[in-house]
Fold IclR family transcriptional regulator.
Amino acid sequence: MDGSSASRPAPSPALDQGLRILAHLATQRGPVAASAIAGALDLPRSTVYRLLGVMAERGFVVHLAEQRLYGLGLVAYELSSGFARQQPLARLGAPVLGGLVDRAGESGHLAVLHGTDVVYIVEERAPRRPTLVTDVGVRLPALATATGRAILAALPDAQRRAVFPGRAAFEAVPEGSPRSPAELRELVRLTRERGFAEEDGSVTPGLASVAVAVRDHTGWPVAAIAVTFPSERDPASREALVGEVARAATELERRVGGARR
């Protein structure tokens, strides 16, 4: 017997099965039924229900009881955000953001969703432009920012409801942000219709931002790119900025192996 094989720890079937379930959920466009997971992975339903129960308790999975569906929970999403914070996404995004700022002449940023906030992982300041409150590592409420709104609009509806499950989740949001699930749904509808998110004065009076989500190969929004500019910019120049941000988002998607959906 090979010595290295003899010393290798025996695999844990439950751990392997749980990781397979998480990986499967990560490839889905939205929450799915436990029976569908069992069928796709060729696992006993009893095993799938048991593992989903454990993962739901730990926050890796969210159970939408009324719909009898399961989706990724906030802890699983935080793992994705952790990956982004540990540099790979930032390193890939920095040159893309630098090119965007050079073309647009305005400051830009790359942010990821972390719970109900966004965390800025790359910040590129344009010369002689207004001072911004954003910087690498700064957290701001997702509902108030263009980057947060872009990511939330790109999430499957059920997953977004898991992040903001009811009216209580809107109690402390900043002025100018959606104040209820209905207002958030309308904002999402408008953002999807336009293809970009925007905010005007919600973060800093006199400054506006536009943002576009960056998706991975499954279509999942892993980040968003934005530029910030004075609110008095005319509609035509704003439209040009949106085009530049969308171009940058498409380029970053290509670098991370994603595809525009």
Remarks:
- Confidence is low (pLDDT under 50) at residues 1-7.
- The longest helix spans residues 235-256.
- The beta strands are 61-64, 69-72, 107-114, 117-124, 139-141, 197-200, 207-215, 221-230.
